[in-house]
Amino acid sequence: MKQLWIIAAILLFGSSTMLASCNNDENEVKTGKHKPLKCKRPDYLKPGDKVALISPSYFTPMENVEKTADVLRGWGLEPVIGPNVGKTFMGKYAGTVEERLSDIRWALQDPDIKAIICNRGGYGSMHLINLLKYNEIAKNPKWIVGFSDITTYHGLWQNAGVMSIHGTMSSFLAKGGNDESSTLLRDMLMGKVPQYELPTHPSNIQGKAQGVLVGGNLCTLAPNAGSLADPTTHKDFILFIEEVEEPLRNIDRQFNILLLSGALSRCKGVILGEFTECGTDLTYPNAEAMLYEYLKNYNIPVICGFPGGHDDINLPLIMGASTTIDVRSNGATIQFNIDGEQQNVNTADITTLVTTSVSQRLQWAGKQV
């Protein structure tokens, strides 16, 4: 009788393990612990290529989507709007989980669609982490563009071995697409690779490092720690983070999630983007000064003040690309080590005028009604 119980227990354990394996299928295979990332560059776009506009997180008004479509037509591209764009669910989401997932799969599986631009961030990407499989992304490598809550999709793309673009979305492109953030995104999609020069910053840490660029919005990235959308489980990466309207104590909390997960011990260097409208609840002069107190202990270079994130200037970054950062006493550089026409961009020369109010930016980030 005892032997029968033992056999039954083995069979039960084996079947549950098999079920878990089936549910995660190829995603489990690709999450090799602490291996360096190696990501493929999707094809650059050419005139006439189709670009999908999808809303995989929060709802975006169709007016913004249509205006963005006009901008893409002005770039010589053919926009195609996702079948479920325009839908809402529970007041905020751009449709149900199934509808949002369906639009991503539609864009990935259509061979005529060459890139995907997300309409808005907000919240909701976390719902899709265990549903969108790495092999779906890897066998159809296409640029996905976005920031904020789209950070989760960047993590999935990088873990699947595909590059992506942290850059502006429909909420901003709808303003006309003539600002530097938009035109540099256009150029990047079409094969011009920016090499950024940045001025000095008091919280910079000097040094030079090379690694695969990962990251995005801190409060989206940190809760994904250990999940299938966490690229920091790999090693030898450059970490980019930015944030909007968070008290310093929460920035500290989210950053400590990364510290406790061991991410910083596997990191070769850090780029800090914009910390827009972030609080002064602690007596640090700013978020960069607070994070400096942690980062100075890791003997890695740190760039502060990269104009990327939830402000009017949101310069594009190639996530998943081999990236070299060089921080000196007189400034810093960010170089993407991929093929393409090189384009030098001095961030101090970017003169984009304020085009959106603070309340608009916070609303698009899902942090204001």
Q: How does the SSE layout of this entry go?
A:
Layout: H1 2-30, E1 50-54, H2 62-74, E2 78-81, H3 97-109, E3 113-118, H4 134-138, E4 143-146, H5 151-159, E5 164-166, H6 170-173, H7 180-189, E6 192-198, E7 207-217, H8 218-221, E8 237-244, H9 248-260, E9 267-276, H10 287-295, E10 302-304, E11 317-319, E12 322-328, E13 331-336, E14 341-346, H11 358-364
Parallel strand pairs: 1-2, 1-3, 3-4, 4-5, 6-14, 7-8, 8-9, 9-10
Antiparallel strand pairs: 5-11, 6-13, 7-12, 12-13
Describe this protein's structure.
The protein has 369 residues and is of the alpha/beta class. The protein has two domains: 50-191, Rossmann fold; 196-349, Glucose Oxidase, domain 1 (3-Layer(bba) Sandwich). It has helices at residues 2-30, 62-74, 97-109, 134-138, 151-159, 170-173, 180-189, 218-221, 248-260, 287-295, 358-364; strands spanning 50-54, 78-81, 113-118, 143-146, 164-166, 192-198, 207-217, 237-244, 267-276, 302-304, 317-319, 322-328, 331-336, 341-346. The strands form two sheets. It has an eight-stranded mixed beta sheet with strand order 10-9-8-7-12-13-6-14, with helices on both faces. A six-stranded mixed beta sheet has the order 2-1-3-4-5-11, sandwiched between helices. The longest helix is centred in the first third of the chain and has 29 residues, at 2-30. It is globular and about 50 Å long. Mean pLDDT is 90; it is low at 1-25 and 28-32.
